[in-house]
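Appendix C: a fully annotated inverse folding record. The material below is reproduced so that readers can follow the format used throughout the book. The structure is listed first as tokens, followed by the designed sequence.
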């Protein structure tokens, strides 16, 4: 008698094993953030200048348009080089200029700052650099400003399976010398309310040019948002050490630190068992086919 064996059984078993492997592969989702976008209403960039001087000179400082890609306010303080007193304050106008009128002739130091003025940021005032200017009577004195402080170029976030998160931060230092500074990471589960749950600080040395910095964190709050602040030890009139910031960025963190290991081990065991069953099924089918062939010969 010939025994008919359902040959699809081992095939189905092997398909189940493959599906089990695919399902057990972990997937990490990352929502990357970036620089704060320009305010479409442009309402915060058009504050009229404040004229405090009493002379007959004017100073016009051009701000590169490439620097005006954020919402907020760019303003300048004109400081007398001889006595260190502020003689005038100006806000950037629609022509991307800081204009100081009625200034007394002489040498001045111009300090430029930026205030985000955004509802979803920490609104930390940034120091962008200084410029020595000379006020002379007659035609306006024109100068071009170039940002002269370190800034954050990009922030990349890489979550890993054990609950840790790696922040990879690129910093640009336009100056030809090393600057001591620090990176501060603020962590929150609700950035709309500006509630900080954790704060991590790392001292860094900012070399000229591009700098690659990495910070490992293990946030406890869920969901997790991070806010990166760059601080540099640079003297300026307002003693502000913040020179760059990166807005709130959400990252999904694997919350199953221990469970994921157990699940992974359990899945591995299941895969091995299924594979063994599949091999045994194939061997059993081959043996039945061979024995059935002998039985047919004997019967004949």
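Designed amino acids, in order:
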């Amino acid at each position: 008698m010939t025994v008919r064996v359902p040959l699809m059984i081992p095939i189905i078993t092997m398909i189940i094993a493959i599906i089990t492997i695919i399902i057990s592969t972990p997937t990490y989702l990352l929502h990357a953030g970036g620089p704060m976008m320009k305010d479409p209403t442009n309402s915060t960039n058009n504050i009229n200048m404040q004229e405090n001087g009493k002379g007959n000179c004017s100073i016009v400082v051009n701000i590169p348009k490439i620097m005006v890609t954020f919402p907020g306010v760019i303003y300048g303080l004109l400081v007398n080089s001889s006595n260190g007193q502020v003689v005038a304050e100006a806000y950037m106008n629609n022509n991307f200029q800081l204009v100081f009128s009625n200034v007394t002739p002489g040498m001045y130091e111009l300090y430029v700052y930026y205030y985000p003025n955004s509802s979803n940021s920490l609104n930390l005032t940034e120091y962008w650099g200084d410029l020595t200017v000379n006020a002379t009577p007659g035609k306006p004195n024109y100068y071009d400003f170039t940002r002269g402080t370190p800034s954050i170029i990009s922030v990349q976030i890489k979550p890993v399976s054990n609950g840790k998160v790696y922040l990879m931060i690129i910093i640009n230092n336009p100056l030809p010398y090393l600057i001591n500074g620090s990176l501060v990471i603020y962590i929150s589960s609700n950035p709309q309310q500006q509630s900080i749950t954790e704060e991590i600080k790392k001292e860094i040395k900012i070399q000229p040019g591009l700098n690659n910095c990495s910070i490992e964190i293990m946030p406890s709050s869920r969901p997790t948002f991070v806010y990166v602040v760059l601080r540099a030890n640079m003297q300026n009139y307002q003693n502000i050490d913040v020179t760059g910031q990166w807005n709130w960025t959400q990252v999904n963190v694997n919350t199953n630190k221990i469970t994921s290991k157990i699940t992974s081990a359990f899945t591995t065991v299941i895969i091995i068992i299924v594979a063994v069953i599949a091999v045994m099924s194939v061997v059993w089918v081959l043996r039945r086919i061979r024995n059935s062939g002998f039985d047919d010969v004997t019967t004949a």
